[in-house]
Amino acid sequence: MTARGVLFVHSAQPALCPHIEWAVAGVLGVPVNLAWTPQPAAPGCLRAQAEWEGRPGTGGALTSALVGCQRLRFEVTEDATPGYDGVRHAYTPELGVFSATVGANGDIMISEDRVREAMLRAAQGRAILEEELDRLLGRAWDEELEPFRYAGEGAPVRWLHAAV
What we know:
eight-stranded mixed beta sheet; globular
């Protein structure tokens, strides 16, 4: 079974670019050469975008590999496949990793248990429900990454295929 997704490196220092390519290649099992372009939202930084194919779970593996590069901003999506939910991972140096299940229409899906926990925390006065829901939806990550997403519109996209 093949999963598909997209890797968005929103901003990276030029010196990190080879390390990012090596990390992605290590997960996919094939050499990777990303098309790096300037990131207008972060002068001196570069951005890249690539669509990928691999086994289900590759999105999580890419995220784990890239977190080691720390000073970059990125997102990895993985489309749903039979038996596997879609996933979105986002990373910023300030916020760390955010991961969420994604429905077929692209919306973040929050499990019943997580909603109940947020409601319980709010009822106990340990949290504000609206803030808990914003956290579960990744609002802080979206707010931080949005300028980088917008600045990358029209950038070239490459396909990366994992070794089978």
